[in-house]
Design brief:
The chain has 220 residues and is an alpha/beta fold. Helix content is 39%, strand content 19%. It has a single domain, classed as P-loop containing nucleotide triphosphate hydrolases (Rossmann fold). Strands 1-3-4-2-5-6-7 form a 7-stranded mixed β-sheet, sandwiched between helices. β5, α5 and β6 form a beta-alpha-beta unit. The longest helix is centred in the middle third of the chain and has 17 residues. The radius of gyration is 16 Å and the shape is globular. It binds guanosine-5'-diphosphate and magnesium ion. Guanosine-5'-diphosphate binds next to α3.
Length: 220
Amino acid sequence: MNEQESTGQDLAEWIEEARKVFAGPITFLKSAPDLKFLPDMAVNEVAFAGRSNVGKSSLLNALTGRNGLARTSNTPGRTQELNFFDVGEPLRFRLVDMPGYGYARAPKDMVRKWRFLVNDYLRGRAKLKRTLVLIDSRHGVKDVDADMLDMLDAAAVSYRIVLTKADKVKASHLAQVIENTAQAIRKRPAAHPDIIATSSEKGMGLPELRAAVLESVTQG
Ligand SMILES: Nc1nc2c(ncn2[C@@H]2O[C@H](COP(=O)(O)OP(=O)(O)O)[C@@H](O)[C@H]2O)c(=O)[nH]1
Ligand SMILES: [Mg+2]
């Protein structure tokens, strides 16, 4: 059974509803540098993961139409916190900005801290319905990304690949990256098979991504 059948709602309806939700109230709730600072599990959550500089902050800002929501940082690999954003009034679901990974110059203890924080969050969060794993359209799935996918598969957290910066590559290259990525996740147990290509700069894929977010937090 696919998601449309399970909810009786088609893609156009999801897109329209998601547009409204993302145009409504969205506020920063809190930063959790440590598991003891996690907020209560009041509502479902969808998390955003990706290597440093993949365009995660830009995508969160573009999705929500708010430039200052997630700081677009010039110092990659510095934020080691989970950032929570409340969506809707009354509260409907939460967006979670996960700390970036794969920053080459990150000190070892920082990498270790990242791994503990992310793993504990992924494994202990019943309300986490899906993680969106951002992959740069120019590069495809790299080893550090595969490590992230391994963690998600091991934690049995459903995830979906979102290609970023699609405006930076030719259409033919993008099609090839989508195909290669689909192949790379084919046998991964927790991967959603469909890949969304986006550009925060040009707005490409954003309505579909908003719909995918809403759909993932609306189930159960
Ligand atoms: N051309 C283009 N550049 C982007 C896009 N998204 C992000 N960038 C650029 O990529 C760099 C890293 O973006 P940022 O959002 O800070 O990445 P983060 O480290 O994953 O949060 C910045 O210079 C952004 O302007 C996009 O869709 N298209
Ligand atoms: Mg960032």
